[in-house]
Amino acid sequence: LYCSYFLVQTIVICMKTVELLGGNSSDVFVNITDIDSYVSKVSSSEKAEKEIGLVIEKVIEFREKTIDASSDMVQKAKRIIKEQYTQQNLMIANVAAEIGVSPNHLSCIFKQKTGKGFAKYLTELRIEKARVVEKYRIYKCRDFRKSGLQQSKLF
Fold first, then answer.
1. Predicted confidence (pLDDT) per residue in 79-128, tens digit
2. What is the model's pTM?
3. End-to-end CA distance of the chain
4. How far apart are CA 112 and CA 13, in angstroms?
5. Using CA atoms, how far apart are residues 144 and 125, in angstroms rounded to an integer?
6. Cβ contacts of residue 131 below 8 Å, gap of 6+?
7. Radius of gyration (Cα) for the chain, nearest Å?
8. DSSP secondary structure letter of residue 101
């Protein structure tokens, strides 16, 4: 009885965890359509322990896939930003649309992975590029706009 209770609690917590990570628990736990009938098939504490391990493994696998997908998304966003940083109208909505995700989702994941918000990352990149231009005197002062910055007084 105690093992069944523990198994049910583990399944419920794992399903909620998958949902919090942005997944669909029915996609991750395809063999658990009805928790009661699933648990009723577990006849011993050894089998319950094995099932608990399998349920937790599924959450870990899902989390690893989510981390990989998030890292890929941020890498794509960084690449797009580096290619388009000189465009004055570059916004997170543009980058998100190009990747195929919502701006809010990209904003959250980007900040989690980089430690910086989109605007701060873009501004720092523009300043870095403008400093390179200034260091090597590649352009005249009026050409700092080519770095994506409007005001050369930021230096």
1. 999 999 999 899 999 999 999 999 999 999 999 989 999 999 999 999 98
2. 0.55
3. 70
4. 24
5. 13
6. 155
7. 24
8. S
